[in-house]
Amino acid sequence: MRDASVGFQCPDCVKEGAKATRSGRTPYGGTRPGNPTATTATLIGINVAVWLALLVTGGRGGRLYELLALMPDGYCRSASTPSDYYPSITSSAACSRLNGDGDWIAGVADGAPWQLVTSMFTHLEWWHIAFNMLALWVLGPQLELALGRLRFLALYLLSGLAGSVAVLWLSDPTGATVGASTAVFGLFGALLVVGLKVGGDVRPILTLLGVNVLITVVGSSFISWQGHLGGLVGGALVAAVLVHAPRRRRTTYQAVGLVLVTALLVAATVVRVLLLR
Hints:
The protein is mainly alpha-helical. It is built from 11 helices and 4 strands; from the N terminus they run ββαααβαβααααααα. It has a single domain (2-55, 112-276), classed as Rhomboid-like (Rhomboid-like fold, Up-down Bundle). The protein has helices spanning 11-18, 38-56, 63-68, 92-96, 115-118, 126-147, 149-170, 181-197, 203-218, 225-243, 250-276, and strands at residues 2-4, 7-9, 75-78, 102-105. The longest helix has 27 residues, at 250-276. It starts with a strand and ends with a helix.
């Protein structure tokens, strides 16, 4: 890895991207971006906007947080004392019969599937969003330069979705999970796949990934290892679809591969929801 205007770069990945300069295409079929930081900057802007909105709407105790955070299943809390909840009540209907004191907070399994996506743009603590946005700024432009804008965006969103599905399956059903690290770990996995594809030295990438895995393990009591694992696997899978597609009819193979990955994640979500209900 070497210093660059956007953080660190994999020299072999950059060389591979430079080969497509004359044709206006990236090595993997996308249109070469004139500004490889544009999509990353937009994603950072969305994350910051959501963070600011949460700050002014009550943070963790606000309704916006409850709408955006990923909760596998809903739960019933006390309307008069929001810090208290009723663990024995498992449906919104039963919660509404608590003489006006029941306040049902919906999760993915009972009508809030958007949380699978919104949670990856949601942060509360300044250090949480700062760390994730720094990692996104370091990794994002390199991958956008190699893949092209649309493919990079698909990688980011599907990585985040894979992390959310892993949280849905492996986390406490009534716990709340937020953060862009699901997608960021997907970018780590994708950069590793690209590095291997071009025959580059991936040891610096593995070292950086190892440090982040260590942080996840040490902080597993408050860090979602489930989301990180799902994002990492999802990002590596999506990147493999993009960079290993045959050159002939590459775009078609890539599109079909991405649709299949999406379908797999949707199917896993549906099965989990049925099990929770």
